[in-house]
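Researcher: I'd like a candidate sequence for this fold, 329 residues long. If you have to choose between options at a position, lean toward the conservative one.
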């Protein structure tokens, strides 16, 4: 019988209170959810077109009928800026906002988390982020609604933001969202290339942990199943962009990657974001056993020699990238 050498699991603390609402047409429940607790809503949308989608127009009509006010911040830059946050803070103050709904990609989700905290601190976005005034009040509740498989940003508490003056990028920790709504019908409306690039982004996050010794054996097995799920669901989406089952699978893989397994394997020494072939070419002389494991457990390679198995796995991964029509994003 084959023997195994098990890696010791790293110590961790983990809590995730965000409620998840997942499934087809779950966005249609937003108005009724809001009406239970809130009276004024700020919608934050990646671009103006998202705020004018048919499903969001229906939500706004329902809010009007229920007497619930709302306002908007749109056209969020890809790299979040402090000036954008300040605009959202002012909207919250002017309209007495008690709920924020973020719709779209990473920048909108990040903006909502920070605005939800900073709006209650009675300070500017720049002062709040750079610790001139310490935050003490409870944040405005945030509901995130991703339109892409956003690598877990819809459920975590981290953001990236640029200083308008110095252009430097900073990473910051906020409160977790109150609710995440993952609706594959909304994700299906996104351009196909964005969905494919989202899948590659999820894989990049997994590879950072998987190939750098940041995870133990049980996590590696879970990551291998996630990789397989991402590969197969992305293939299905490319073949049929309205395949809601495959889209929902990809949404879940993103959430699990960053907000469960990824949260337990945080390590500053993790590899920078590179595609697998680049990682292999750089690290193969040091250690290719992990690449052989990847090839066997994800692609079913049966070569007994580790180096051969590793190279076959890289080739199969490269062939998969060709089948989805994107070699770089």
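Model: Candidate sequence:
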């Amino acid at each position: 019988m084959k023997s195994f050498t098990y890696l010791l699991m790293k110590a961790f603390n983990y809590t995730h209170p965000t409620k998840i609402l997942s499934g087809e047409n779950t966005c249609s429940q937003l108005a009724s959810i809001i009406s239970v607790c809130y009276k004024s809503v700020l919608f934050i949308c990646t671009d103006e077109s998202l705020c004018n989608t048919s499903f969001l127009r229906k939500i706004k009509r329902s809010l009007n009928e229920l007497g619930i006010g709302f306002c908007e911040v749109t056209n969020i830059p890809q790299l979040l800026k402090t000036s954008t946050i300040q605009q959202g803070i002012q909207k919250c103050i002017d309209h007495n906002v008690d709920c924020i709904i973020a719709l779209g990609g990473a920048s909108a989700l990040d903006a909502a988390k920070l605005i939800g905290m900073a709006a209650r601190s009675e300070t500017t976005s720049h002062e709040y982020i750079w610790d001139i005034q310490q935050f003490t009040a409870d944040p405005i509740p945030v509901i995130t609604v991703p339109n892409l498989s956003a690598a877990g940003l819809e459920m975590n508490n981290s953001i990236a933001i640029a200083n308008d003056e110095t252009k430097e990028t900073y990473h910051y920790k906020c409160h977790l969202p109150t609710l995440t709504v993952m609706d594959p019908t909304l994700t299906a409306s996104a351009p196909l290339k964005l969905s494919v690039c989202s899948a590659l982004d999820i894989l990049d996050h997994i590879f950072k942990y998987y190939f750098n010794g940041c995870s133990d054996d049980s996590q590696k097995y879970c990551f291998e199943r996630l990789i397989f799920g991402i590969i197969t669901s992305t293939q299905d989406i490319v073949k049929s962009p309205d395949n809601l089952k495959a889209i929902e699978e990809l949404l879940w893989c993103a959430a699990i990657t960053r907000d469960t397994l990824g949260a337990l394997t945080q390590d500053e020494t993790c590899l920078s974001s590179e595609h697998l072939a680049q990682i292999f070419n750089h690290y193969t002389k040091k250690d290719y056993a992990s690449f052989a494991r990847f090839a066997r457990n994800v692609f079913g390679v049966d070569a007994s020699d580790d180096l051969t198995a590793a190279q076959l796995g890289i080739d199969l991964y490269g062939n998969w990238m060709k089948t989805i029509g994107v070699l770089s994003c």
